[in-house]
Amino acid sequence: MAAAAGGPGPGGGGRRGARRGAANILAQLRHGQLSGRGLTRGAQITEALLKERDKQAKWNGIPLLLQKLYENSHPNSDLSQCQSILKEISPLLSMEAMAFVTEDRKAAQESTFPNTYTFDLFGGVDLLVEILMRPTLITQKKKQKISDDLIKDCLSILYNTCICTEGVTKRLAERNDFVLFLFTLMTNKKTFLQTATLIEDILGVKKEMIQLEDIPNLASLVSSFDQQQLANFCRILAVTISELDTGSDDKHTLLAKNAQQKKNLGPSRAEVNQATLLNIPGFVERLCKLATRKVSETTGTSNFLQELEEWYTWLDNALVLDALMRVANEEAEQSSTESSDESGLANTSTRTQLPQSMKIMHEIMYKLEVLYVLCVLLMGRQRNQVHKMIAEFKLIPGLNNLFDKLIWRKHSASALVLHGHNQNCDCSPDITLKIQFLRLLQSFSDHHENKYLLLNSQELNELSAISLKANIPEVDAVVNTDRSLVCDGKRGLLTRLLQVMKKEPAESSFRFWQARAVESFLRGATSYADQMFLLKRGLLEHILYCIVDSECKSRDVLQSYFDLLGELMKFNIDAFKRFNKYINTDEKFQIFLNQINSSLVDSNMLVRCITLSLDRFENQSDIKVAEVLSECRLLSYMSQMSMRMSFLFRLINIIHVQTLTQENVSCLNTSLVILMLARRKDKLPFYLHTLQEMEYTEKYPGFILNNFHSLLRFWQQHYLNKDKDSTCLENSSCISFTYWKETVSILLSPDRTSPCAIVSYIDEAYMDIDRDFTEE
């Protein structure tokens, strides 16, 4: 009896035996799939055995249905039978998938999904891939035609299985032939949405980034897309053109990055993919049109609602649809409340309102994807080429026209947000669109003369007038700006941004991105006219209010404000005068200093700006400058040698070669600026000697100067091979890069008799300067 109970045969000890038999089948199947020997798919098991085990094992008839599917999917069989079988399988899997993407996601992840698991285990995933790809594998002249509905059913079931059963997506991602094949299905509008969603899911887990140039007929594929399809395609492109680790770029040490760059001498896959896209005729132009089109220009209501209907069956977008439907219901309730006596009119009103609300959300979702792709291309190797195209296709004036009505529109009473989130959540499409828009402005303005396209003609004239009044030459880029490509209307995009920036609530997550976008407009060679343009609009007072009066606590926001303040005030005596007028009490000034000192990594760019400005002002004989120098609390504070030495000591102490990142390397450059200005006045030996004395006071002789020596050796390795960084250093400091290099060489001199060499100030007993850099 015991032997019979454990056996897989028909006589095995009742229900418990059946369960064990089912378990044996599952175990054999899984072993076969992993090893390639024995049972590898459910079709190899007899129908009688499957029937017997099905009920007790709770397989819901899936193995039997798969067996029928296998028998009806041979090369010469009638595939219409396959569709009716899939119609039976599909609801069993979609219910599980729906549970996964709704509110019970957490609970769902902790449970098992027997139907999708069973479907995969009995070979369902491999069989559907086989059915889909069959037309490409058969060499007969008359190829088998697969109906659109069958393709949609196959894709839908594959996607549901992917999201519920671990490992399926990765397995599909490893089949490069299948991934490239999926792109060919995108030419059919009826199957586009399902194909796009499955591809996005697969590419998200693919270990190696796909090469876009491997996609058959990519250019003709993209040109066949309508604007809605192109926007959805951008979701897929986002995965193929972004470097995999960009999310935590600032956190990666420069040592690790430099080591990686030495290994990867050629362009990365993402960079190759960016170049491939730019070679597609009309691609950037179409993106610009999509990004700037108004909601009224989108497709008709009927097409839009038809697509929403498809979304409803497509689970990836269920949450978006949920949000849309909630808005629809709220508007319907509002209309019926307002016109309760005229219910017929109320219903008519609701019907006309619904599409507009949904179309706005739809357009926001599209623009998100498009702006992301444009932003990545703007930051890539072909930046200048992209800049030229974006200017030519009037992206900036187009975004300016959308600013009030779509990008920074006022929230309606029924906020369009995703299910389970609130209006201020970073996942909200409204919020994400604003952040993506600000990131695009930042990338567009950063160190590029096209930044003046953010202004309108009157504002450009204002810049010219500021230069004329100050008796300084106009900036070439302002003179050369093509007036036909600038913003139109009463205000340019930069001015609009300043207006919303001032109204932003204290706790808003936008403050960081807004400050970054405005700061990028000022970056590069310092322009007095640009600074005055922003000072006239009250930007300095707004920043000081946020830092001092609202006592901002967010480190990210504080850093962005300090960086912006540094660019706004650098070398500008009027800015320092305004600063002193606003910070007009010792109490306010102390709060400001406390904010600076609370984190030098965040505030060091402002410290650099004050140091550089003070040095320039001290060398000028202007009465106005002398007056501000004597009155300004900030300049008086920095003019004290003890304060400069305190900043220098702390800047060197908070960084080490092993912990240098893109974010904190600026502390090293700020410390170098302080020493270069000292060298100009022949005070370098005095500064080094003072650092030595401060070490002894701290009872740690050598610990600062040894560290500084290592940091400067790294500086040479890092900067002497990079053109861009050296240009940035020159522009931001107005000190030639040659002087930077000379100062570092003098400081690193091995001659212990040199008064300007670091080694002269480290006692031999404490010398520790020859360590190799490692990535530990």
TrEMBL record:
It comes from the Eukaryota. Coiled coil: none annotated. InterPro entries: TRPC4AP. One of its GO terms (molecular function) is phosphatase binding. One of its GO terms (cellular component) is cytosol. GO terms for biological process: protein ubiquitination; ubiquitin-dependent protein catabolic process via the C-end degron rule pathway. This is Transient receptor potential cation channel subfamily C member 4 associated protein. It comes from Chrysemys picta bellii (Western painted turtle). The gene is TRPC4AP.
